[in-house]
């Protein structure tokens, strides 16, 4: 009986000891898992914080890009309008310049936008027409002496 008691004590000791070992094992495992999870949570929090910073930075850059795009569009519109204005002024100036340069030679006389050349040389009608054509002009036909006098008086 004594042996039985000792055996039971031993069994009880083993069961208790085994339970303690199991509890210790599980506690150790839980602690290790807790440390691992905490470490992972910290890493994820760091990555999340970094991604938030990146998102904020990208959002800020997008706002800057939108502002610059709007300014560029305004500049393009202004430049386009200025170009149109300058083209119109250029056309006006070209027209004015042409009217000024039409009669740049001394022997030509200007009346408005038209220039007239009075020749003192005696030539046939055909020779006069050829001469005018060679100058890039055309021969003016005056039908009467009155029209001739009127034409001359315009230039005096």
Automatic annotation (TrEMBL):
The keyword Coiled coil applies. PANTHER family: C-TYPE LECTIN DOMAIN FAMILY 7 MEMBER A, C-TYPE LECTIN DOMAIN-CONTAINING PROTEIN. GO terms for biological process: cellular response to molecule of fungal origin. This is C-type lectin domain-containing protein. GO terms for molecular function: (1->3)-beta-D-glucan binding. It comes from Chrysemys picta bellii. Keywords: Coiled coil. Residues 41-103 form a coiled coil. It comes from the Eukaryota. The keyword Nucleotide-binding does not apply.
């Amino acid at each position: 009986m004594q042996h039985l008691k000792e055996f039971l004590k031993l069994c009880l000791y083993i069961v208790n000891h085994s339970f303690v070992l199991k509890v210790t094992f599980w506690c150790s495992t839980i602690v290790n898992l807790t440390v691992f999870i905490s470490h992972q949570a910290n890493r994820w929090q760091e990555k999340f914080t970094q991604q938030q910073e990146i998102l904020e930075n990208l959002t800020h850059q997008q706002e800057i890009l939108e502002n610059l795009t709007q300014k560029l569009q305004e500049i393009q519109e202004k430049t386009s309008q200025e170009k149109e204005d300058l083209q119109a002024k250029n056309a006006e100036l070209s027209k004015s310049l042409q009217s000024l340069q039409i009669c740049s030679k001394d022997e030509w006389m200007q009346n408005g936008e038209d220039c007239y050349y009075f020749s003192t040389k005696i030539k046939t009608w055909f020779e006069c027409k050829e001469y005018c054509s060679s100058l890039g002009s055309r021969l003016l036909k005056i039908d009467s002496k009155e029209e001739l006098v009127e034409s001359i008086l315009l230039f005096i």
